[in-house]
Amino acid sequence: MIRLHGVNRTFGDVTALRNLSLDIPEGELFGLVGPDGAGKTTALRILAGVSLPDSGDASIGENGDAPLGYMPQRFSLYEDFTVMENLRFFGSIWGLSGGELAHRAETLLERTGLLRFKDRLTEHLSGGMKQKLALSAALLHRPRVLLLDEPGTGVDPVSRREFWRILYQLHGDGLTILITTPYMDEAQLCQRVGFIHKGALIALGTPAELRAQYPFHVLVISGPPGELHPLAPLIRKLDIGDVTPFGDTLHAAVKEATNAKDLIRRLLGDRSAKFVIEEATPSLEDVFVQLAPGGTS
Would you call 75 exposed, middle or buried from its count of C-beta atoms within 10 A (0-12, 13-18, 19+)? Predict the structure, then answer.
């Protein structure tokens, strides 16, 4: 349903995409995952026809003609319109009018929880409500494919959870969804994931498959915040693996867990009782850090 083959795109001296190839079957919920500047937005803009590749092919549908809904990262609706005025305007672009447009708009607003705000000016909506309105506008013409560019960025956790509840409903209806995200917790919610780094696809598979391919044991080290992060370079000198800060913990990627624990305990010495060292299941973030050039080797 969604196909990129050998796509390259540069902007001056910057290479945004490097020989990117990807096939997404009909009905899949797929996550293109990577940090800012990885090329995610460029890939979606090319698929949506907003931008052209320097080389390679991109298509939606078997013959390149499947109806497409596109929700860009930047909010693109009119702030000085009401919720319903925005939907009427964008519906008219798709040739909708009268009772059909009103029915579709109200159905979508009901589904996204925005119906009671239909007369509110868009500028007065919260960030999460704006995202749901933009999603409604992208769905008015009943597309078969939905492209979403980082819809969770800048949105509070509760709104993000609600947005994903709606996405799962749409996916259950048979919609093919491609979502880009920098968040590994959102990647975990996708059926398949493609890791993109500096414009190149570096891994592809289900979240479970990607974690299963991780070649290291993960030790999670927690302790006093002021003493934890200075510990990372000292552990690296033990030559047992790499260490990465993860929030208020350290993740050590090691080849042998028991020996690594013992060496870290010896390093801590009298301070050992202040720290907890536990082996954990690798996360998708662990996997990405290891796969990205310059990661654990």
Answer: middle
